[in-house]
Each structure stands twice: as C-alpha cells, then as structure tokens.
C-alpha cells in the first residue's frame, strides 16, 4: 500500500515537472530546437497510424501529410475518420491519405486486416501504434478479452508482428508505439479488484516490454516507444475527468504532444539512437521510477511467449 501511494505521489510530481505544457515550453526555449532540422525525403514513404482521427493522432497524420508521405489512417469510426481525411487533404494538398476501418479490440479482424494490407501494398516504412483506451469499469470484448488489454496490448502485438515482414522489405523501417508515463505506476492489481487506471498502466508497461523485445529480434527495424506528455485530448477529458479538471490549464496541446512522435517517424536523427528505447520530448528516458519495481529479462521473455500464444489463438487457420 505504501509503495503504491509513494509511487503515485512521485509520478504526479514528476508529471507536473516533465509532462506539462510549461515544462515543454521551458525545455524547448532552452534548447532552441532547430526547425530547419534535416528531414528524410517523405514523398516515397508510406506510414500507417492507428487512432489517427482525433487528438495527437490527427496532428501526427497531418504533419506527415504536410511532408508528402502517404498516410494510412486506421480507425474505428468511419464518418469521423473520413471527415478528418478530407480536412488533411484540403489543408496539405496531399491526396495520399487513406482510410481503413478497424476495431482494434477485435483480434481476429486485425489478423485479417493485416493480411489484406500485405497483399495490397508493397511498402510500409513506418507503423505508428497510436490508438489506445482507458476503460475504468471491467468489461470484455466479444472474444473474451479485457478491453484495456485487448486494445492497448494485444492489438499492438498482433498489428506489429503481422506487419513486420512488410516492414522488413521496406527502406528504413520504423515502429513507434505511443505509450504513457503511466506505465511507471505499474503494480499488479489485487486479485478480484479492478482498477482501470492501474490496468491501463499495466498495458503501457507491456508496450514497453514488447518494444524492447522486438528490438532484440528484428534488428533491421528501428523500434521506439514514447510518452507524449499530458495532452488535452478528448480521451483524457472523458476517461480521466477528475485528473483533467485538476490540471487542465497545464496540459499540452495536441501539437505539442505529437512533436516527438513525428520526430521519431521522419527524422534522420531519431534512428541514430539505439532501437528499443523510451522517448520523451525527443530524449531517451528511464522506464521506471527510482526505488520502484523493475522487470527481469526472464519475466519479459515469458510474457512475450504467452502473448504470442494468445495472439496466435485468434489467427485464421
């Protein structure tokens, strides 16, 4: 109990210091970030982003389209996604913005979607796993999976592993997973007790483990996982209303939150960093709080084997 309260308090003060709009502004002011940073040629590059129709996801898609890249938006709601697609095309003049409708909580549909995409496309340079959810009440998908786990962990695993063969055939392939500083709070929930915030934190920690493990087994792909900071998005407002009310004047804009994702996706400097690291504000940071629980290599490998077995149970025969 004490470690839980200690870590929660530590994380909150760390967040105020590092995740808010004030500290980003202060940091960027000190560093005088160079807007003239050399970007890779985007005209022939293909990007796929989940959750690309709102918040930081929308900004990420827009920024990539501005640079001339082909953007495949993978989202659940067709109407809103097509509206955002039209906005991006109109603003950028880039017609290479495509919509794919997929519910990431449905594992079988992800396998089917990826198989079709591999057949229809010869190239995928960058996969951005941006979609996520925080469900505060226990609930299961039609396939029997807890909703947070299905959307944040299992879908990320299936989509990424099923697209690795296509990524490996493409030039300068990258996989970026948008996680959260909340993964620093990971504690196993008590048996029989459901805490949506802690379950969410657990899935974020699992995303870090997946990224680290993939980087060791797929050396030709640059993997990274990152935290956007505390961003004012529709998801934060609905899933964390009390938190939002207490810090809303300090939250980052979606544009500020998207900055590091876009940098990881398009910058030549990003891939000079080792694969498998956790990023925040274009810098690598630790994946655990001081004095907090840490993972062992054997635990990570066991987790990946269990996840592989579970994912494959939904794979079409």
UniProtKB/TrEMBL annotation:
PANTHER family per record: DEHYDROGENASE/REDUCTASE SDR FAMILY MEMBER 12 (PTHR44656), DEHYDROGENASE_REDUCTASE SDR FAMILY MEMBER 12-LIKE (PTHR44656:SF6)
Domain of life: Eukaryota
SUPFAM superfamilies: NAD(P)-binding Rossmann-fold domains
Listed name of the protein: Dehydrogenase/reductase 12-like a
InterPro entries (UniProt xref): NAD(P)-bd_dom_sf (IPR036291), SDR_fam (IPR002347), SDR_member_12 (IPR052992)
